[in-house]
Amino acid sequence: MGMFDGVAGFGVTFSTMFRKVVTEDYPRVKKVTAPRYHGRHQLNRHPDGLEKCVGCELCAWACPADAIYVEGGDNTDEERFSPGERYGAIYQINYLRCIGCGLCIEACPTRSLTMTNEYELADDDRQDLIYDKDRLLAPLLPGMEQPPHPMRLGENEQDYYVQGPEMARRPDVQDQVREEIPMVSGAATPDAVPTQEAR
Questions:
Q1: Is the domain 43-153 a CATH 3.30.70.3270 member?
Q2: Which residue positions form the known binding site?
Q3: pTM, entire model
């Protein structure tokens, strides 16, 4: 052991002192995530506002962490929440258990469940990290109607998946939706029914 060994060791320390700092100025400056980043889940809607979730519970079965709880309910002609026979009456995701693997997304047959770029899920109350359906549902876009309501894009569930986007662009369907949607005070009049699902 030479007398300069200690100096060589400190050389590494001193060299790092002058390197560029890589610390992010979070939360004042938020880093932009990659487009395919998997963050918080979202339950998507059809262009007329009906929910895409059909309450099949496949996402709950696929979850290796047992973080998803779903109870399906039956649609009726008077109260319709989705185009199918059933809908997700109760839907919860426990983010204390979720590992963000995305297996629930792959299991969903209707693309109802997707993951957003939102990553700020920290909270000081454990109960607030159990997200229910109201917090997971995509917001209503202009031209969408809050369920329950009748099917606007076709006569049956197949119409929504086969020709739903094309039907939403038809002027007669847009006019019908405009006439039947009770406008919220302060909301802008919808110019067209949106055709893309919320991210």
A1: yes
A2: 53, 56, 59, 63, 98, 101, 104, 108
A3: 0.69
Q: What's the rounded Cα separation, in Å, for the pair 84 and 74? A: 9
Structure tokens at 42: 């979202």
Q: Are 137 and 43 in contact (CB under 8 A)?
A: yes
The distance between the two most distant Cα atoms of the chain, rounded to a whole number of Å, is 88
pLDDT digits (tens, 9 = 90+) for 146-186: 999 888 887 777 777 655 566 666 776 666 555 544 444 34
**What's the CA gap between 94 and 113, in Å, rounded?**
15
Which amino acid type is present at position 169?
Answer: R
Q: Can you say which residues are annotated as belonging to the binding site for [4Fe-4S] cluster?
A: 53, 56, 59, 63, 98, 101, 104, 108
Cα–chain center distance at 127: 20
Q: Kindly list the domain boundaries of the chain, sorted by start residue.
A: 43-153
